Amino acid sequence: MKRTILVGVGGLVLGAVLTLLLIGLSVMPRLSPQPEPEAAMAEMPAMAQAARPPAADFSEADESLRGIGAAPGRGGARKQRAPAAFGMQMDKAMPAGAMAPPPPPPAPAPMQEEAAAPSGRAWFPETFLFEPLVVTDASGEASVPVKVPDRLTRWRVLALAHSRSGAQAGAVSTFASSLPTYVDPVLPAFLRAGDVVRMPVQVVNTTGAAVTRALKVEAQGVAVEGGTRTVTVPAAGSVVEYVTLRAARPGPVTVRAALEGADSVERGFDVWPTGQLVRETRGGTLAAPRTLELVGAASPVEGSERVRLLVFPGALGVLRSELAAAPGRTGGAEDAYALLLTGRAPALLQGLGGTVEPRALEQASVLAGQRVLRAGRAPDVATAALLAEAALAHPGNPVLARLGERLSEQVARAQRPDGTCQGGEGWTLQRLLVATAECTRVVRAGMGTDAGSRRASAFGARAAGAFERSLSRIRDGYTAAAVLASGGVSGSVRDTLRGRVREALQRRPDGAAYLPVPAGVVRADGQVPSEAEATALAVLALVEDKQAPLADLGTSLLADYRPESGWGDGRANLAGLQAVLALFKEPLPSQVRVVLERDGQPVTEGTFDAKALREVLALEAEAPGSVGPHTWSVRAEPAVPGLGFSLTLAARVPWRASEPGHGLELAMKVAADAKVGMPVEVTLQAASPAGLELTLRQELPAGVQVDRPSLEELVRQGRVTAYDVEDGAVSLTLPPRGAAEPFTARFRVVPTLAGSLQAGASSLSLVGSENTAFRVAPTTWTVR
Question: Using CA atoms, how far apart are residues 26 and 170, in angstroms rounded to an integer?
Fold first, then answer.
């Protein structure tokens, strides 16, 4: 469906700027005075597939950022972060005005007048319009043509306008997209191989007369039973039909439901594999052909053997990959990282021979800037240290620059007389020194002004004294690397710490070097750092050390990178990207061919060219016959030192319950009689040694929804400290318990699909260490 949205504000002149957003709620147009700069925010709603739209707050606007977007008013259950709408500088004052509503949708023709069915509906984005700049003409109007998605719903259009003096206005209008008679299959978010389900298919009649039509449901990737029938739908009514889906193998599924002469819709989901995942990963750089021996799992589930080769095109490719992925990650550290990345990206891209895309960077800055400004209103010292460097990376944005200056000053004021920074009850010296190193780096980042330079000089002198006094007590490589990476030491202290980092490095079988993390070592935020983060800090600590095995550290660093998550959370990604940029600065050749072979036979290949250096190259293929040891080779033509790779051989094997070990035990019980729409109680029992914080992950069948109030009750009782709900699983964080103190908890779930459905394996593991886990084999649920 195509529409043109006409927006305008009374009294506007040529060149005035509007912000347009299509969302699922209404607000009244209004005018407000100029907000405080650092509080200048417009908090957009999360775009959710919920039955009702989420709330939003448009009370504040940032003078330097702006955004435009669109979203439906209803849909399914998973929330996303939405683009923020920010105010924009304009040349002249703008009085309040109203948006001209779009024309209403035409009345549907009676069913008997339809000559043919409309084209199939297959486009269902949650957000389909985002325009950061709409400029009005001399009459104060602007037209925005859009293609409306195939979702049948009511769309709400929000227009915002902002002036330099602080005047704001907004208006809302709606339009509907519908059909006289339509079909709506209710697809699961996923199935598991072996599932048999009854899928509901709703047929809706919005006309004033009953209709009788042929309904046909077919699918690719699953078997359909009972997919063809004739349905009669009463006037202004609906009926629900059921078809049976049998999922035999993992893979993508496409379901098409067609109502003769009226509507057809195509949607998809994935069938997840069953069995325990077994994988082996090796990595390195492609400075020369690499030969590796990987041992494939014994007795793999049929069709589950696969190989995946990720090739990272040097610093430029990783930088572009992170620019694309970072704005979509959630969390305070992730937001700070995304803002820092967008601030430094133009200079980094130019230095690496890449091209700058101002519009994409601006949109990413809008998203990250909104979140950081909100978090930076009244932060504690730890949060200020996290956000300051990111805000200071945007000197051209006065709001963010002032925020960064204020946060940097707050961090500097937190320094103690002995030169350390932060600290608190129960802190170890190791954590205090890492936190001081982080503060040192943050304060040094504010040296762009005279006041910042003086502040950094005084802070650095006191911090250097603290590091020197504690030199004999810095025994682990991670802390030594953190201090070195901060730039807070020099001379003999620096040389001593470099030696300790080099001594702590270890080698993997393929020759790659990495920095392990000893027990008891934590980051400034108290979390245990990953080996990937520690290795990145080692690179930053040793980048000017001629004795350091930088190439071998780079091999581990690139092998640990994942496009979807980087090297971990925001702190780990900040260190990882800085390390990659420090190691691999040379541009790649205009074209590079990458080949993967097993036992001398080609498996897959791919090619980089000058236009493709934007993403990590992912090559994936089926790998039947990989049981046992095989020789795998990876080569680049020509060989490129800055090209890293990660090779993973994966397969699924039949599940077996874990043998008792590590003192961890887990048992689960579910009521045998489960019915669609009726709550089912899940009972979990766990045992572990005293004093351990644990993660209990309970995997659930398709269509089983968790009753969140029952989880909130567990938190209120202190039985769990946190929980996380995702498709097909719920994870509980269990607080440390005393000796011989078992864990028992009950929560409720609600099945929404009937059939024979498999749950995944459940596990009990130490927080931050999935390798130490007790697992319970999957069960099959029968839901009526």
Answer: 10
